[in-house]
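Run log // design_07
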């Protein structure tokens, strides 16, 4: 399995904010303004992983490491 296949197709706004180093509220506002790619599924707002990576200029390997590091941090 390649790294791209290991990444989820979407991440939460909270996860995207963690990658960007932004507070959750700021991340939601940026998504509402269209500054961060986001799709609404029901009441949930999700960020397409690959579109965010493209925006940040990251590849899938970089993102996988960042997502894993973000998940390992205590809440």
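design_07 sequence
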């Amino acid at each position: 399995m390649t790294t791209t296949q290991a990444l989820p197709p979407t991440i939460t706004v909270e996860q995207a904010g963690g990658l960007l180093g932004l507070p959750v509220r700021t991340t939601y506002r940026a998504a509402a303004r269209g500054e961060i790619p986001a799709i609404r599924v029901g009441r949930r707002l999700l960020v397409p992983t690959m579109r965010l990576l493209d925006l940040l200029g990251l590849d899938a390997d970089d993102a996988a490491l960042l997502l894993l590091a973000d998940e390992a941090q205590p809440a």
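Residues 53 and 62 are 9 Å apart (CA to CA).
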